[in-house]
User: Which sequence fits this backbone?
């Protein structure tokens, strides 16, 4: 390995990888062309999608940090994290602008605490991440039900105004998330943490022998994933005018689909931040198309599943051991 | 030869200790709170819901035996109740065709998963959308007409011992025999434990994984059919909790992802525990709000205890 390959793991595989994230953009452009051919205001569609795209990108990045840790690492508690952090933030803000700061802080702390709890289960109780986050998700959901059910608190006007600010047609929220994406990209490709989680994802034993603190870096990934889920929960509640219990439900599949379609390896050790944006906008435009065609809820569900699966199968590799 | 065989046997027994213990820990307070659960009728009512749950747990056990997981199984079983309640009464041929189609689809899904090295969790989460979409299309609101014979089948009054008890014992025995006394069982555990060895032995692993998935679908259909018979309605969301409950049941029964370690007897016991937990919480007058969280908590608790026990056995053997 050359030193430049070490410095920039996301691009070290050259053509193959760059082609992988390119696909999500190609897909997005194709779907956009379809929309443009039928819709009167295609650019309006695109900017309307941009806000939801921000949420997809946030959960997708969180999940990507966990998936990169290697086989078996996944966070299934994201949908419930979104719900609970939304509740905590809205409750603390209590519909007044002066509470916004504390609400955001406590919302993020809740998200990080869930991430910490997940990693605690995985590390201390030695439970597979899939089971640990599944169970913790249900516990988090129960906490939401017991403490916040029926709670209807509108977000403070300051916060809802903020998430709806637009620079001509581009939402500010989207630009903020895009900036976060750029930061994550540099963290993953340049910082020790970024290099370490790739090394751990590729071979945890080798990483450990190379004096990488495996547990500490895994902890950071799970906590960051919880933080991203928390941020999504807060912003989504502000954007949607309140919190509902099932608010995060659709984000489970999407949080996994975004990094996988964006070119990150589901087996870990290989992240791809540029693909996060492409995959998010691609998925959203597909959902939008299904919406404008006027399919029933059932058919929309079926097609969402089938399309995501088809893309995942198409981007997979053959098993050489067969 | 006899010494290792003995250790293996005692090891198996030890694995079953925790599942048996957890059933007792839940059943004894139940019996103290409501002594009627020790009588024929009480036991029948108590364990009725264990029939579909033990079948779905058995299905999940086969998936986990080969190191996979079916995250869509709760949605699939909801869909099956919809097919049985809304399609079969109108057009029996179409309904049965759909059920068979699900088995075939699972076969191809399993083969494809293996051939393309796909992650079963990603694919099955995707499939769960497809199942729910189909279920909502077939049965937009709960209802339908479950065939009478299914309702009769699950409420048969057997002599002396209630039907659910007989059913659970038979299911555990059949599951155990299939896993440990047939070539199929050896291959299933082999794929989970050492897939290269199975490939080297000249068996088509792609085909085998497909067959295991077909078995998962078959058991899910049986689970859906018995559930429909018990609830007497078709509902697109009736079994969404079954995904967590089935995984919990397998883990409670001593199964794990790694190494093809599964136990059919343990899975049935695990399913019983998860059924009884729900009833116990109701008897203790704990709000249903806490139900799903406490089931998640029990899963974590048992895994923790399992981990401690396994570690202690590992130490003694080393």
Assistant:
């Amino acid at each position: 390995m050359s030193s430049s390959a070490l410095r920039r793991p996301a691009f070290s595989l050259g053509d193959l990888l760059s082609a992988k994230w390119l696909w999500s953009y190609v897909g997005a452009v194709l779907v956009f062309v379809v929309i443009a051919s039928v819709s009167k205001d295609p650019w309006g569609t695109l900017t309307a999608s941009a806000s939801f795209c921000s949420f997809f990108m946030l959960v997708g990045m969180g999940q990507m940090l966990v998936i990169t840790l290697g086989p078996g690492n996944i966070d299934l508690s994201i949908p419930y994290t979104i719900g609970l952090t939304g509740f905590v933030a809205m409750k603390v803000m209590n519909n007044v602008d002066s509470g916004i700061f504390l609400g955001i802080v406590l919302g993020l702390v809740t998200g990080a605490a869930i991430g910490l709890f997940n990693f605690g289960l995985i590390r201390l109780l030695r439970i597979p991440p899939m089971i640990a986050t599944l169970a913790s998700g249900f516990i988090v959901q129960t906490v939401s039900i017991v403490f916040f059910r029926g709670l209807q608190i509108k977000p403070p006007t300051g916060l809802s105004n903020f998430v709806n600010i637009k620079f001509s047609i581009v939402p500010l929220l989207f630009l903020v998330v895009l900036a976060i994406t750029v930061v994550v990209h540099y963290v993953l490709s340049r910082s020790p943490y970024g290099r370490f989680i790739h090394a751990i994802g590729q071979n945890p034993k080798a990483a450990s022998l190379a004096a990488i603190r495996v547990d500490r870096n895994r902890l950071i990934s799970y906590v960051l994933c919880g933080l991203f889920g928390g941020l999504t929960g807060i912003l989504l509640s502000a954007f949607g005018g309140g919190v509902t219990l099932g608010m995060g439900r659709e984000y489970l599949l999407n949080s996994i689909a975004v990094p996988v379609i964006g070119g990150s390896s589901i087996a870990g050790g290989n992240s791809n931040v540029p693909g996060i944006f492409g995959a998010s906008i691609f998925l959203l435009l597909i959902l939008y198309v299904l919406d404008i065609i006027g399919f029933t809820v059932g058919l929309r569900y079926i097609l969402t599943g089938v399309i995501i699966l088809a893309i995942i199968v198409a981007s997979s590799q053959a098993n050489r051991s067969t | 030869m006899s010494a290792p065989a003995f250790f293996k046997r005692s090891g198996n027994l030890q694995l079953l200790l925790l599942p048996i213990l957890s059933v007792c820990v839940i059943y004894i307070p139940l019996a103290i709170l409501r002594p009627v659960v020790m009588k024929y009728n009480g036991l029948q009512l108590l364990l009725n819901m264990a029939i579909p749950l033990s079948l779905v747990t058995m299905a999940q056990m086969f998936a986990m035996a080969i190191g996979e997981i079916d995250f869509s199984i709760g949605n699939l079983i909801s869909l099956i109740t919809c097919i049985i309640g809304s399609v079969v009464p109108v057009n029996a041929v179409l309904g049965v065709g759909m059920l068979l189609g699900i088995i075939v689809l699972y076969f191809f899904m399993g083969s494809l998963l293996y051939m393309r090295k796909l992650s079963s969790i990603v694919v099955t989460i995707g499939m769960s959308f497809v199942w729910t979409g189909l279920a909502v299309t077939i049965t937009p609101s709960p209802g339908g007409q479950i065939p009478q014979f299914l309702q009769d089948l699950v409420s048969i009054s057997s002599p002396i011992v209630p039907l659910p008890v007989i059913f659970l014992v038979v299911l555990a025995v059949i599951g155990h025999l299939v896993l440990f006394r047939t070539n199929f069982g050896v291959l299933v555990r082999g794929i989970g434990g050492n897939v290269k060895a199975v490939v080297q032995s000249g068996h088509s692993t792609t085909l085998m994984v497909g067959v295991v998935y077909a078995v998962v679908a078959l058991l899910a259909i049986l689970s859906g059919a018995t559930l429909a018979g018990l609830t007497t309605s078709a509902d697109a969301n009736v079994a969404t909790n079954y995904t967590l409950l089935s995984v919990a049941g397998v883990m409670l029964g001593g199964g794990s992802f790694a190494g093809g370690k599964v136990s059919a007897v343990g899975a049935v016991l695990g399913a019983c525990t998860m059924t009884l937990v729900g009833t116990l919480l109701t008897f203790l007058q704990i709000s249903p709000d806490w139900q799903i969280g406490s089931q998640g908590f029990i899963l974590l608790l048992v895994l923790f205890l399992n981990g401690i026990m396994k570690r202690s056995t590992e130490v003694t053997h080393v």
The mean pLDDT of chain B is 87. The CA atoms of residues 99 and 221 of chain B lie 7 Å apart.
